[in-house]
Amino acid sequence: MGTELFGRSSYRPALTAAGPVLLPQAQRIVSGVQDYRPQAHDLLAGVEARLTLVADVTAPADLVTATLKAFYAEFPRVELVLLTRVLDNTFLALQDGTADLGVVIAPPAYRLLEGGGVSHLR
């Protein structure tokens, strides 16, 4: 870019006049590249970049918290959006695609899918 961050006029490299201004941005760029590699690896392996989880408001908080901790332990780079819904609206969010995953307590009065409900997900 035509501007040096460090000068070599002495034994040890020292910031140039432009260095204090440009160094923080250069560090953010390097950090971004370091974050990019594992994220790209995850995407190539089929890991979603973002998922939406819907939780029934009647679900115990410790169950939701344990679910979130387990999820982040397994998928630390996946952005997780958390929605809360009341009773059957939790299932509707799954059925209409608003949410990808759900934490529910009781089945709805109707069938989620024509062939039956989902028993578990991998």
Describe the secondary structure blueprint for this structure.
Blueprint: E1 6-7, E2 14-15, H1 19-44, E3 50-56, H2 61-74, E4 79-85, H3 88-95, E5 101-103
Parallel strand pairs: 3-4, 3-5
Antiparallel strand pairs: 1-2
Key words describing this protein structure:
122 residues, alpha/beta, three-stranded parallel sheet, two-stranded antiparallel ribbon, 3 helices, 39% helix, 17% strand
Question: How would you summarize what this structure contains?
Answer:
The chain is of the alpha/beta class and 122 residues long.
- Tell the overall outline: elongated
Q: Could you state the order of secondary-structure elements as H and E?
A: EEHEHEHE
- How many strands? 5
Helix content: 25-40%
Note poorly predicted spans: none
Major sheet details: 3 strands, parallel
Instruction: List the strand order in the largest sheet.
Output: 4-3-5
| Radius of gyration, whole Å | 23 Å
| Average predicted local confidence, pLDDT | 79
Q: From the helix content, strand content and strand pairing, which structural class follows?
A: alpha/beta
Description:
The protein is α/β, with parallel strands linked by helices. Helices cover 39% and strands 17% of the residues. It has helices at 19-44, 61-74, 88-95; strands at residues 6-7, 14-15, 50-56, 79-85, 101-103. Strands 4-3-5 form a three-stranded parallel β-sheet. It is elongated. The termini are far apart.
